[in-house]
Amino acid sequence: MTTAIDMGTARSGEPALLDLAELLATRLLVQGNSGSGKSHLLRRLLEQSAPLVQQAVIDPEGDFVSLADQFGHVVVDAQCGEAELQRVALRVRQHRVSVVLNLENLEADEQLRAVAAFLGGLFDVDRSLWFPMLIVVDEAQLFAPVMAGEASDEARRLSLGAMTNLMCRGRKRGLAGVIATQRLAKLAKNVAAEASNFLMGRTFLDIDMARAADLLGMDRKQAEMFRDLERGQFVALGPALSKRPLPLRIGPATSQDRGGAPGLMPLPEQGPEEAGKLIFTAGADEAPITNWPPRPTPRPRPPANDVLRQIETYRPSPAPEPEPDIPMEPEEREAIMAEILRELMVDPETRTRQIAVLYQDFTVRCRMRRLGRQSLSLDEFRRRLAVARAGASEEVTASEPWQAAIEASAALPDDLQSLFLFIARAGIERAPCPTDAELAAVYGSHSPSRARRLIGYIEERGLLVSHVDFRGQRTLALPTLGLETAPGLAQPRSAGLPRGARS
Predict the structure, then answer these.
(1) Which domains, ranges and CATH numbers included, belong to the chain?
(2) Residue 247 exposed, middle or buried by CB count within 10 Å (0-12, 13-18, 19+)
Protein backbone atom coordinates (compact mmCIF):
# COMPACT_ATOMS: atom_id res chain seq x y z
CA MET A 1 0.00 0.00 0.00
CA THR A 2 1.38 3.43 -0.98
CA THR A 3 0.46 6.89 0.28
CA ALA A 4 0.60 9.28 -2.68
CA ILE A 5 0.40 13.05 -2.30
CA ASP A 6 -0.32 15.49 -5.11
CA MET A 7 2.63 17.75 -5.93
CA GLY A 8 1.13 19.37 -9.02
CA THR A 9 0.65 18.55 -12.69
CA ALA A 10 2.87 16.60 -15.08
CA ARG A 11 3.44 17.67 -18.67
CA SER A 12 0.86 15.14 -19.84
CA GLY A 13 -1.78 16.82 -17.68
CA GLU A 14 -1.97 13.99 -15.17
CA PRO A 15 -1.40 14.61 -11.44
CA ALA A 16 2.25 14.45 -10.36
CA LEU A 17 2.15 12.09 -7.37
CA LEU A 18 4.83 11.55 -4.76
CA ASP A 19 4.90 8.29 -2.81
CA LEU A 20 5.32 9.50 0.77
CA ALA A 21 6.13 6.05 2.18
CA GLU A 22 8.91 5.61 -0.38
CA LEU A 23 10.17 9.14 0.28
CA LEU A 24 10.63 8.33 3.99
CA ALA A 25 13.02 5.55 2.98
CA THR A 26 14.91 7.21 0.11
CA ARG A 27 15.14 10.98 0.91
CA LEU A 28 14.83 13.95 -1.50
CA LEU A 29 17.17 16.59 -2.95
CA VAL A 30 15.81 19.81 -4.50
CA GLN A 31 18.03 22.16 -6.55
CA GLY A 32 17.21 25.46 -8.22
CA ASN A 33 18.55 28.99 -8.49
CA SER A 34 17.09 31.75 -6.38
CA GLY A 35 13.57 32.45 -7.65
CA SER A 36 13.05 29.01 -9.21
CA GLY A 37 10.36 28.05 -6.67
CA LYS A 38 12.22 25.80 -4.21
CA SER A 39 10.54 27.24 -1.12
CA HIS A 40 7.15 27.02 -2.80
CA LEU A 41 7.85 23.35 -3.63
CA LEU A 42 8.76 22.63 -0.02
CA ARG A 43 5.64 24.43 1.19
CA ARG A 44 3.47 22.34 -1.16
CA LEU A 45 5.13 19.16 0.09
CA LEU A 46 4.66 20.16 3.73
CA GLU A 47 1.01 21.11 3.26
CA GLN A 48 0.10 17.90 1.41
CA SER A 49 1.89 15.60 3.90
CA ALA A 50 1.05 17.47 7.14
CA PRO A 51 -1.92 15.21 8.06
CA LEU A 52 0.09 12.04 7.28
CA VAL A 53 3.51 12.37 8.91
CA GLN A 54 5.29 14.34 11.64
CA GLN A 55 7.40 17.21 10.29
CA ALA A 56 10.32 19.39 11.35
CA VAL A 57 11.36 22.37 9.21
CA ILE A 58 14.81 23.95 9.46
CA ASP A 59 13.93 27.53 8.45
CA PRO A 60 16.88 29.95 8.14
CA GLU A 61 14.76 32.94 7.03
CA GLY A 62 11.49 32.45 8.94
CA ASP A 63 9.56 31.72 5.72
CA PHE A 64 7.63 28.72 7.04
CA VAL A 65 6.37 29.99 10.41
CA SER A 66 2.98 30.59 8.75
CA LEU A 67 2.42 26.81 8.80
CA ALA A 68 1.58 27.19 12.48
CA ASP A 69 -1.63 29.11 11.73
CA GLN A 70 -3.12 26.54 9.37
CA PHE A 71 -1.55 23.18 10.24
CA GLY A 72 -0.68 23.51 13.94
CA HIS A 73 3.12 23.49 13.66
CA VAL A 74 4.86 24.77 16.78
CA VAL A 75 7.40 27.52 16.07
CA VAL A 76 10.65 26.98 18.01
CA ASP A 77 12.77 30.11 18.37
CA ALA A 78 16.41 29.00 18.08
CA GLN A 79 17.51 31.84 20.38
CA CYS A 80 16.62 29.67 23.38
CA GLY A 81 20.11 28.09 23.41
CA GLU A 82 21.72 24.82 22.34
CA ALA A 83 20.99 22.86 25.53
CA GLU A 84 17.33 23.83 25.46
CA LEU A 85 17.10 22.96 21.74
CA GLN A 86 18.31 19.43 22.49
CA ARG A 87 15.67 19.03 25.18
CA VAL A 88 12.98 20.43 22.87
CA ALA A 89 14.02 17.99 20.13
CA LEU A 90 13.66 15.07 22.55
CA ARG A 91 10.14 16.20 23.49
CA VAL A 92 9.29 16.71 19.81
CA ARG A 93 10.00 13.04 19.09
CA GLN A 94 8.42 11.90 22.35
CA HIS A 95 5.10 13.68 21.75
CA ARG A 96 5.20 13.56 17.91
CA VAL A 97 4.68 17.30 17.41
CA SER A 98 5.41 19.00 14.08
CA VAL A 99 7.69 22.03 14.50
CA VAL A 100 9.37 24.87 12.60
CA LEU A 101 12.87 25.79 13.84
CA ASN A 102 13.07 29.55 13.21
CA LEU A 103 16.69 30.72 12.76
CA GLU A 104 16.09 34.20 11.31
CA ASN A 105 17.28 36.08 14.43
CA LEU A 106 20.67 34.32 14.69
CA GLU A 107 24.04 35.04 13.14
CA ALA A 108 25.60 32.53 10.74
CA ASP A 109 27.75 30.84 13.40
CA GLU A 110 24.85 30.59 15.85
CA GLN A 111 22.59 29.14 13.14
CA LEU A 112 25.01 26.28 12.48
CA ARG A 113 25.34 25.48 16.18
CA ALA A 114 21.57 25.60 16.69
CA VAL A 115 20.93 23.22 13.77
CA ALA A 116 23.60 20.82 15.04
CA ALA A 117 22.06 20.80 18.53
CA PHE A 118 18.48 20.37 17.27
CA LEU A 119 19.28 17.59 14.77
CA GLY A 120 21.45 15.90 17.38
CA GLY A 121 18.54 15.91 19.80
CA LEU A 122 16.24 14.37 17.16
CA PHE A 123 18.87 11.75 16.34
CA ASP A 124 19.96 10.66 19.82
CA VAL A 125 16.69 9.35 21.26
CA ASP A 126 15.65 5.98 22.58
CA ARG A 127 14.72 3.31 20.03
CA SER A 128 11.13 3.35 21.29
CA LEU A 129 10.79 6.93 19.90
CA TRP A 130 11.94 6.16 16.34
CA PHE A 131 8.68 7.27 14.70
CA PRO A 132 8.61 8.37 11.03
CA MET A 133 9.46 12.04 10.67
CA LEU A 134 10.06 14.35 7.69
CA ILE A 135 13.01 16.73 8.18
CA VAL A 136 12.87 19.59 5.64
CA VAL A 137 16.00 21.77 5.40
CA ASP A 138 15.75 24.92 3.29
CA GLU A 139 19.01 26.46 2.02
CA ALA A 140 20.89 23.30 2.99
CA GLN A 141 24.17 24.65 1.58
CA LEU A 142 24.33 26.93 4.64
CA PHE A 143 24.41 23.97 7.06
CA ALA A 144 26.43 21.48 4.96
CA PRO A 145 28.84 23.68 2.99
CA VAL A 146 31.66 22.32 0.86
CA MET A 147 34.15 24.83 2.26
CA ALA A 148 34.40 27.15 5.24
CA GLY A 149 32.59 30.48 5.02
CA GLU A 150 31.91 33.28 7.46
CA ALA A 151 31.16 30.83 10.30
CA SER A 152 33.85 29.26 12.45
CA ASP A 153 35.37 25.89 11.60
CA GLU A 154 34.00 24.32 14.78
CA ALA A 155 30.41 25.40 14.05
CA ARG A 156 30.74 24.20 10.44
CA ARG A 157 32.07 20.83 11.62
CA LEU A 158 29.19 20.37 14.08
CA SER A 159 26.52 21.29 11.56
CA LEU A 160 28.05 19.20 8.77
CA GLY A 161 28.25 16.18 11.07
CA ALA A 162 24.59 16.56 12.05
CA MET A 163 23.49 16.90 8.41
CA THR A 164 25.57 13.87 7.42
CA ASN A 165 24.00 11.82 10.21
CA LEU A 166 20.54 12.90 9.04
CA MET A 167 21.10 11.81 5.44
CA CYS A 168 23.32 8.77 6.02
CA ARG A 169 22.02 7.21 9.24
CA GLY A 170 18.65 8.86 9.78
CA ARG A 171 16.56 6.28 7.89
CA LYS A 172 16.79 3.61 10.59
CA ARG A 173 15.71 6.18 13.18
CA GLY A 174 12.69 7.20 11.10
CA LEU A 175 14.22 10.53 9.98
CA ALA A 176 13.77 11.31 6.26
CA GLY A 177 15.78 14.27 4.99
CA VAL A 178 14.39 16.65 2.37
CA ILE A 179 17.10 19.18 1.51
CA ALA A 180 16.90 22.15 -0.86
CA THR A 181 19.91 24.03 -2.21
CA GLN A 182 20.62 26.76 -4.74
CA ARG A 183 23.67 24.97 -6.16
CA LEU A 184 24.88 21.39 -5.85
CA ALA A 185 28.45 22.66 -6.05
CA LYS A 186 27.95 24.45 -2.70
CA LEU A 187 26.54 21.37 -0.93
CA ALA A 188 28.78 18.76 0.71
CA LYS A 189 28.96 15.61 -1.41
CA ASN A 190 28.43 13.24 1.56
CA VAL A 191 25.07 14.91 2.18
CA ALA A 192 23.89 15.16 -1.42
CA ALA A 193 24.95 11.63 -2.39
CA GLU A 194 22.52 9.94 0.01
CA ALA A 195 19.38 11.24 -1.73
CA SER A 196 17.66 8.90 -4.19
CA ASN A 197 14.92 11.32 -5.33
CA PHE A 198 15.61 14.55 -7.20
CA LEU A 199 13.63 17.63 -8.21
CA MET A 200 15.76 19.89 -10.42
CA GLY A 201 14.59 23.43 -11.15
CA ARG A 202 15.87 26.36 -13.19
CA THR A 203 19.63 26.83 -13.24
CA PHE A 204 22.00 28.71 -15.54
CA LEU A 205 25.60 27.75 -14.78
CA ASP A 206 27.03 25.08 -17.07
CA ILE A 207 28.54 23.06 -14.22
CA ASP A 208 25.23 22.97 -12.34
CA MET A 209 23.30 21.99 -15.45
CA ALA A 210 25.79 19.20 -16.18
CA ARG A 211 25.57 17.82 -12.63
CA ALA A 212 21.78 17.98 -12.68
CA ALA A 213 21.73 16.11 -16.02
CA ASP A 214 24.10 13.45 -14.63
CA LEU A 215 21.92 12.90 -11.56
CA LEU A 216 18.83 12.51 -13.72
CA GLY A 217 20.54 10.23 -16.22
CA MET A 218 20.02 12.70 -19.07
CA ASP A 219 22.20 13.42 -22.07
CA ARG A 220 24.53 16.41 -21.81
CA LYS A 221 22.72 17.98 -24.76
CA GLN A 222 19.48 17.83 -22.79
CA ALA A 223 21.02 19.83 -19.93
CA GLU A 224 20.16 23.07 -21.75
CA MET A 225 16.51 22.52 -20.82
CA PHE A 226 17.20 23.62 -17.24
CA ARG A 227 17.72 27.20 -18.46
CA ASP A 228 14.25 27.22 -20.03
CA LEU A 229 12.32 26.06 -16.96
CA GLU A 230 9.86 28.59 -15.58
CA ARG A 231 9.33 29.41 -11.92
CA GLY A 232 7.64 26.42 -10.26
CA GLN A 233 8.69 23.95 -12.98
CA PHE A 234 10.93 21.04 -12.00
CA VAL A 235 12.21 17.79 -13.48
CA ALA A 236 11.57 14.82 -11.15
CA LEU A 237 13.33 11.45 -10.87
CA GLY A 238 13.46 8.79 -8.17
CA PRO A 239 11.62 5.79 -6.73
CA ALA A 240 9.14 8.07 -4.94
CA LEU A 241 8.48 10.22 -8.03
CA SER A 242 9.14 8.65 -11.42
CA LYS A 243 11.44 6.01 -12.91
CA ARG A 244 12.14 8.34 -15.85
CA PRO A 245 12.82 12.12 -15.86
CA LEU A 246 9.37 13.72 -15.52
CA PRO A 247 8.81 17.48 -16.06
CA LEU A 248 6.12 18.80 -13.71
CA ARG A 249 4.67 22.05 -12.41
CA ILE A 250 4.22 22.46 -8.67
CA GLY A 251 0.64 23.13 -7.58
CA PRO A 252 -0.51 26.09 -5.48
CA ALA A 253 0.02 26.41 -1.73
CA THR A 254 -2.64 27.56 0.69
CA SER A 255 -0.55 28.93 3.56
CA GLN A 256 0.92 32.42 3.40
CA ASP A 257 4.47 32.68 2.06
CA ARG A 258 6.53 35.21 4.01
CA GLY A 259 9.56 34.65 1.80
CA GLY A 260 8.08 35.96 -1.44
CA ALA A 261 9.81 38.92 -3.07
CA PRO A 262 7.83 42.21 -2.92
CA GLY A 263 6.13 43.30 -6.13
CA LEU A 264 6.56 46.56 -8.00
CA MET A 265 4.82 49.63 -6.59
CA PRO A 266 5.02 53.33 -7.59
CA LEU A 267 7.00 55.85 -5.55
CA PRO A 268 5.05 58.37 -3.42
CA GLU A 269 4.41 61.71 -5.04
CA GLN A 270 6.45 64.40 -3.29
CA GLY A 271 8.76 67.22 -4.25
CA PRO A 272 12.55 67.23 -3.80
CA GLU A 273 12.38 69.62 -0.84
CA GLU A 274 9.89 67.42 1.01
CA ALA A 275 12.02 64.34 0.32
CA GLY A 276 15.08 66.12 1.68
CA LYS A 277 13.28 67.00 4.92
CA LEU A 278 12.21 63.37 5.34
CA ILE A 279 15.73 61.96 5.21
CA PHE A 280 17.67 64.75 6.92
CA THR A 281 15.23 65.52 9.77
CA ALA A 282 14.71 63.12 12.67
CA GLY A 283 11.17 61.87 13.14
CA ALA A 284 9.17 62.11 16.36
CA ASP A 285 9.35 58.37 17.11
CA GLU A 286 12.89 57.80 15.82
CA ALA A 287 15.36 56.12 18.18
CA PRO A 288 18.39 58.20 19.20
CA ILE A 289 21.62 57.68 17.33
CA THR A 290 24.11 55.46 19.10
CA ASN A 291 27.62 56.87 19.17
CA TRP A 292 30.15 54.36 17.95
CA PRO A 293 33.03 53.77 20.39
CA PRO A 294 36.35 55.25 19.25
CA ARG A 295 38.73 52.85 17.58
CA PRO A 296 41.63 51.91 19.86
CA THR A 297 45.05 53.15 18.93
CA PRO A 298 46.96 50.35 17.21
CA ARG A 299 49.89 48.95 19.14
CA PRO A 300 53.27 49.95 17.73
CA ARG A 301 55.09 47.21 15.88
CA PRO A 302 58.18 45.94 17.69
CA PRO A 303 61.49 46.10 15.82
CA ALA A 304 62.36 43.05 13.72
CA ASN A 305 65.46 42.34 15.83
CA ASP A 306 63.35 42.12 18.99
CA VAL A 307 60.99 39.65 17.32
CA LEU A 308 63.88 37.45 16.17
CA ARG A 309 65.42 37.57 19.64
CA GLN A 310 62.11 36.46 21.20
CA ILE A 311 61.90 33.55 18.77
CA GLU A 312 65.45 32.43 19.53
CA THR A 313 65.02 32.64 23.29
CA TYR A 314 61.55 31.08 23.36
CA ARG A 315 61.15 28.07 25.63
CA PRO A 316 57.83 26.22 25.90
CA SER A 317 56.18 26.27 29.28
CA PRO A 318 56.57 22.99 31.20
CA ALA A 319 53.74 20.54 30.81
CA PRO A 320 51.51 20.21 33.87
CA GLU A 321 52.22 17.30 36.12
CA PRO A 322 49.82 14.41 35.48
CA GLU A 323 47.32 13.72 38.19
CA PRO A 324 48.69 10.94 40.41
CA ASP A 325 47.03 7.57 40.16
CA ILE A 326 45.01 6.22 43.04
CA PRO A 327 46.91 3.41 44.81
CA MET A 328 44.92 0.19 44.72
CA GLU A 329 45.39 -3.53 45.06
CA PRO A 330 45.96 -5.65 41.92
CA GLU A 331 42.65 -7.46 42.50
CA GLU A 332 40.78 -4.16 42.59
CA ARG A 333 42.58 -2.95 39.44
CA GLU A 334 41.68 -6.17 37.60
CA ALA A 335 38.04 -5.85 38.66
CA ILE A 336 37.84 -2.27 37.35
CA MET A 337 39.41 -3.23 34.01
CA ALA A 338 37.00 -6.16 33.69
CA GLU A 339 34.10 -3.79 34.37
CA ILE A 340 35.36 -1.38 31.69
CA LEU A 341 35.57 -4.25 29.19
CA ARG A 342 31.99 -5.24 30.02
CA GLU A 343 30.88 -1.63 29.42
CA LEU A 344 32.55 -1.70 26.02
CA MET A 345 30.86 -4.97 25.08
CA VAL A 346 27.41 -3.57 25.94
CA ASP A 347 27.72 -1.12 23.02
CA PRO A 348 26.28 -2.89 19.92
CA GLU A 349 28.77 -1.08 17.65
CA THR A 350 31.79 -2.48 19.52
CA ARG A 351 32.04 -5.60 17.34
CA THR A 352 32.39 -3.52 14.15
CA ARG A 353 34.90 -0.98 15.46
CA GLN A 354 38.63 -1.31 14.90
CA ILE A 355 40.91 -2.59 17.65
CA ALA A 356 42.88 0.66 17.74
CA VAL A 357 39.71 2.70 18.30
CA LEU A 358 38.52 0.36 21.04
CA TYR A 359 41.93 0.48 22.72
CA GLN A 360 41.88 4.28 22.73
CA ASP A 361 38.40 4.23 24.26
CA PHE A 362 39.60 1.70 26.85
CA THR A 363 42.63 3.78 27.87
CA VAL A 364 40.51 6.92 28.24
CA ARG A 365 38.10 5.08 30.53
CA CYS A 366 41.05 3.74 32.54
CA ARG A 367 42.42 7.26 33.04
CA MET A 368 38.98 8.43 34.14
CA ARG A 369 39.05 5.68 36.80
CA ARG A 370 42.60 6.78 37.78
CA LEU A 371 44.20 3.48 36.71
CA GLY A 372 47.10 5.17 34.92
CA ARG A 373 47.98 5.54 31.28
CA GLN A 374 49.73 2.15 30.91
CA SER A 375 47.04 -0.08 32.37
CA LEU A 376 47.27 -2.62 29.50
CA SER A 377 49.42 -2.83 26.40
CA LEU A 378 47.77 -3.15 23.00
CA ASP A 379 48.62 -6.88 22.77
CA GLU A 380 47.24 -7.58 26.26
CA PHE A 381 44.09 -5.58 25.45
CA ARG A 382 43.62 -7.55 22.23
CA ARG A 383 43.77 -10.86 24.14
CA ARG A 384 41.38 -9.66 26.83
CA LEU A 385 38.99 -8.30 24.23
CA ALA A 386 38.90 -11.72 22.52
CA VAL A 387 38.00 -13.31 25.86
CA ALA A 388 35.32 -10.70 26.52
CA ARG A 389 33.77 -11.22 23.08
CA ALA A 390 33.55 -14.96 23.74
CA GLY A 391 31.15 -14.19 26.61
CA ALA A 392 32.48 -16.87 28.99
CA SER A 393 31.24 -16.95 32.58
CA GLU A 394 33.56 -16.83 35.61
CA GLU A 395 33.11 -20.56 36.12
CA VAL A 396 34.24 -21.30 32.56
CA THR A 397 37.21 -18.90 32.66
CA ALA A 398 38.47 -20.55 35.85
CA SER A 399 38.52 -24.04 34.28
CA GLU A 400 41.63 -25.76 32.87
CA PRO A 401 40.13 -26.38 29.39
CA TRP A 402 39.56 -22.63 29.03
CA GLN A 403 43.19 -21.84 29.79
CA ALA A 404 44.21 -24.45 27.22
CA ALA A 405 41.83 -22.86 24.71
CA ILE A 406 43.44 -19.43 25.26
CA GLU A 407 46.89 -20.92 24.61
CA ALA A 408 45.63 -22.69 21.46
CA SER A 409 43.99 -19.48 20.14
CA ALA A 410 47.39 -17.76 20.05
CA ALA A 411 48.16 -19.72 16.86
CA LEU A 412 45.33 -17.93 15.03
CA PRO A 413 45.20 -14.35 13.70
CA ASP A 414 43.99 -11.75 16.17
CA ASP A 415 40.56 -11.30 14.57
CA LEU A 416 39.82 -15.06 14.79
CA GLN A 417 40.78 -15.63 18.42
CA SER A 418 37.43 -14.46 19.80
CA LEU A 419 35.60 -16.74 17.34
CA PHE A 420 37.71 -19.73 18.40
CA LEU A 421 37.16 -18.99 22.10
CA PHE A 422 33.41 -18.60 21.50
CA ILE A 423 33.32 -22.13 20.04
CA ALA A 424 35.52 -23.42 22.90
CA ARG A 425 33.10 -21.92 25.43
CA ALA A 426 30.22 -23.77 23.77
CA GLY A 427 32.27 -26.99 23.94
CA ILE A 428 33.07 -26.55 27.63
CA GLU A 429 29.41 -25.87 28.43
CA ARG A 430 28.25 -28.66 26.08
CA ALA A 431 25.93 -26.10 24.51
CA PRO A 432 24.40 -26.59 21.05
CA CYS A 433 26.65 -25.70 18.14
CA PRO A 434 26.41 -21.95 17.42
CA THR A 435 24.61 -20.95 14.24
CA ASP A 436 26.39 -19.24 11.35
CA ALA A 437 24.61 -16.00 12.24
CA GLU A 438 25.87 -16.18 15.85
CA LEU A 439 29.42 -16.86 14.70
CA ALA A 440 29.25 -13.96 12.23
CA ALA A 441 28.04 -11.62 14.99
CA VAL A 442 30.98 -12.60 17.24
CA TYR A 443 33.37 -11.92 14.36
CA GLY A 444 31.72 -8.52 13.74
CA SER A 445 29.91 -9.32 10.51
CA HIS A 446 26.33 -9.81 9.30
CA SER A 447 27.24 -12.45 6.69
CA PRO A 448 26.69 -16.15 7.62
CA SER A 449 28.68 -17.16 4.53
CA ARG A 450 31.72 -15.35 5.93
CA ALA A 451 31.33 -17.32 9.16
CA ARG A 452 31.39 -20.57 7.15
CA ARG A 453 34.58 -19.47 5.38
CA LEU A 454 36.21 -18.67 8.72
CA ILE A 455 35.26 -22.10 10.07
CA GLY A 456 36.89 -23.64 7.00
CA TYR A 457 40.05 -21.62 7.60
CA ILE A 458 40.33 -22.76 11.22
CA GLU A 459 39.76 -26.36 10.07
CA GLU A 460 42.69 -26.05 7.66
CA ARG A 461 44.89 -25.05 10.62
CA GLY A 462 43.98 -28.34 12.34
CA LEU A 463 42.31 -26.66 15.34
CA LEU A 464 38.70 -27.47 14.44
CA VAL A 465 36.64 -30.29 12.95
CA SER A 466 33.13 -29.63 11.59
CA HIS A 467 30.66 -32.45 11.11
CA VAL A 468 27.08 -32.30 9.75
CA ASP A 469 24.87 -35.33 10.26
CA PHE A 470 21.97 -36.51 8.08
CA ARG A 471 19.52 -34.41 10.09
CA GLY A 472 21.36 -31.24 9.09
CA GLN A 473 22.73 -30.68 12.60
CA ARG A 474 26.32 -29.54 12.88
CA THR A 475 28.87 -30.38 15.57
CA LEU A 476 32.11 -28.48 16.06
CA ALA A 477 34.97 -30.32 17.77
CA LEU A 478 38.31 -29.02 19.04
CA PRO A 479 40.53 -32.15 18.82
CA THR A 480 43.60 -30.58 20.43
CA LEU A 481 41.53 -29.68 23.50
CA GLY A 482 39.20 -32.69 23.64
CA LEU A 483 36.11 -30.47 23.43
CA GLU A 484 32.98 -30.84 21.34
CA THR A 485 29.74 -28.88 21.10
CA ALA A 486 26.31 -30.47 21.21
CA PRO A 487 24.57 -30.85 17.81
CA GLY A 488 22.91 -27.69 16.56
CA LEU A 489 21.29 -26.43 13.36
CA ALA A 490 23.83 -24.09 11.73
CA GLN A 491 21.86 -23.15 8.61
CA PRO A 492 18.61 -24.01 6.76
CA ARG A 493 18.04 -27.74 6.82
CA SER A 494 18.05 -28.13 3.04
CA ALA A 495 21.43 -26.35 2.81
CA GLY A 496 23.04 -28.41 5.56
CA LEU A 497 22.21 -31.96 4.35
CA PRO A 498 24.89 -33.96 2.52
CA ARG A 499 24.49 -34.59 -1.18
CA GLY A 500 21.83 -37.22 -1.82
CA ALA A 501 20.20 -36.87 1.60
CA ARG A 502 17.71 -34.14 0.59
CA SER A 503 14.19 -35.17 -0.30
Answers:
(1) 4-250 (3.40.50.300), 325-376 (no CATH), 393-493 (1.10.10)
(2) middle
